[in-house]
Structures are given as structure tokens and as C-alpha cells.
Amino acid sequence: GGEGPLSGLTAIVTSGPTHEAIDPVRYIANRSSGRQGHAIAAALAGLGANTLLVTGPVSQPDPAGVRVAKVETAEEMLRACQEGLPADILVCAAAVADWRVAKTAGQKIKKEDGGKLPVLSLTTNPDILATLSKPGRKRPRLVIGFAAETENLEANARSKRERKGCDWILANDVSDTNGIFGGAENEILVIDTAGQESWPRMDKQAVAQRLAQRVAQHFANRKKR
Ligand code: C5P
């Protein structure tokens, strides 16, 4: 961590997709560029936080000034986060695959197999945000998640915040073809315990800066009390 309002604090940020192997050459994944998560890690580090970025496979360059742990699967992502604890701040911006294949094939599945289609049996992946939000000695002091919603943005994001047990949710309307996925811009509604705050449409760098500022403000207020 460097100099700044977050110096002395540690942060973990998840970013990118996870890849869940079907066989040695195929996988299940969500779409995610990692742009938002990487920008958040850079912004927190820019304000002085000692920052660990835990990222799935992306084509983004490693941001300067952060430690980077590269993972493939949701289970690896959770483990890398746990190894990074304790931390003051956790931001879960990764698009984690909700399921993985129950039994990964050791060899490439052949398509010539008598014309029979393979059947994938899935099992549930850990929810990293919900797991690390659970009350306990190692819970980060401020846990922030994202919610991509296609309808009832506020109500769905608010109930997601409660279900996951995190402190803030940055909710994103992805209903129209507004190019938010993989695009440069985001339109954010912040839900916290006190209420909500809507941000104008801005690029992902600006979202990251504004979030980092809000985090700094949060810790500044706490220190005063
Ligand atoms: O449940 P949903 O995927 O909509 O929640 C999104 C939030 O939860 C994001 O912050 C995402 O990073 C996090 N998440 C997670 N682990 C999962 C699924 C989602 O950390 N397995």
C-alpha cells in the first residue's frame, strides 16, 4: 500500500470470470471482461490500500501497484481470497460460474461416441461473496458486491444485499442492450444499510474511482466515531 486515505488498510478484489472445466479442452464460464474489477483494484491501491486482486482468466493487463493471484475456478478463487484474509475491504466483482461439472472428464470427450450426446451433470459452486460475508472473526469490515439485474433493480438488489450478507451492493441495470457487459460504461445504484444513491452513467474507471472515494469516506467516518 502507498500513501493516501486508505493507507494502512488492506483490500481484496475479485475480478473476471471463472472457468469450470468440462474436460481438458472445454469449460463453462460467464461473460466477463474483468474491466470493472481490475479498475476497482487499481483505484483502491491508488488511494493507498494494500490490495490483492484475485482474478479469473482475462485479457486485461495486471494493474500496477496491486498483488495479483490468478485462478481458474470458483473454488480456487474462494481459496485465494481466504488465503488473503484478514482484510479490511472485500469487493466481489467477479462473474463467478454458479455451477461446475460434477465429474470433470480426464480425457477430451469424443464427439464420435456412437452419436450419443454427452450429458453434463452439474453441482453448485461456492458463493464467494456470501461465504466471506458470514459474521466471524475474519469477516472483512466492509464487504461490497455487485448485482446485475434485468428488472426491479432496487428491490432485487436490496434483497440480494440481505441474502448475501454484504454491506453494499452496486446494482447495475443490464436489461437493455446498453453494452454494459464487456463495454466501457456502467450505470450504478448503490444500496447500503442506510439507503441508496444513484450514480450517473460513467465509464468503469470512473465507477472505480467513485467507489474507492466512497470507501475512503466510510473509513474516515468510522475513525471519527
Ligand atoms: O447471485 P449473483 O451472481 O447475482 O450475485 C452477484 C454478486 O455475487 C457479485 O458480487 C459476484 O461477484 C458475487 N458472487 C460470488 N460468488 C458466486 C456468485 C456470485 O462471489 N458464486
From TrEMBL:
Keywords for the protein's UniProt record, in alphabetical order: Decarboxylase, Flavoprotein, FMN, Ligase, Lyase, Magnesium, Metal-binding, Multifunctional enzyme
Chain sites annotated for binding CTP: D98, K108, P126, D127, I128, L129, F146, K160, K164
One of the GO BP terms on file: coenzyme A biosynthetic process
Domain DNA/pantothenate metabolism flavoprotein C-terminal: 6-217
GO cellular component terms given for this protein: phosphopantothenoylcysteine decarboxylase complex
Involved pathway(s): Cofactor biosynthesis; coenzyme A biosynthesis; CoA from (R)-pantothenate: step 3/5; Cofactor biosynthesis; coenzyme A biosynthesis; CoA from (R)-pantothenate: step 2/5
UniProt EC number: 4.1.1.36, 6.3.2.5
Catalytic activity: N-[(R)-4-phosphopantothenoyl]-L-cysteine + H(+) = (R)-4'-phosphopantetheine + CO2; (R)-4'-phosphopantothenate + L-cysteine + CTP = N-[(R)-4-phosphopantothenoyl]-L-cysteine + CMP + diphosphate + H(+)
Record-annotated membrane-spanning stretches: none
Example GO molecular function: FMN binding
Note on cofactor: Binds 1 FMN per subunit.
Role according to the record: Catalyzes two sequential steps in the biosynthesis of coenzyme A. In the first step cysteine is conjugated to 4'-phosphopantothenate to form 4-phosphopantothenoylcysteine. In the second step the latter compound is decarboxylated to form 4'-phosphopantotheine.
Name recorded for this polypeptide: Coenzyme A biosynthesis bifunctional protein CoaBC
Gene name of this polypeptide: coaBC
Shown chain mapped onto the complete sequence: 180 to 404 of 404
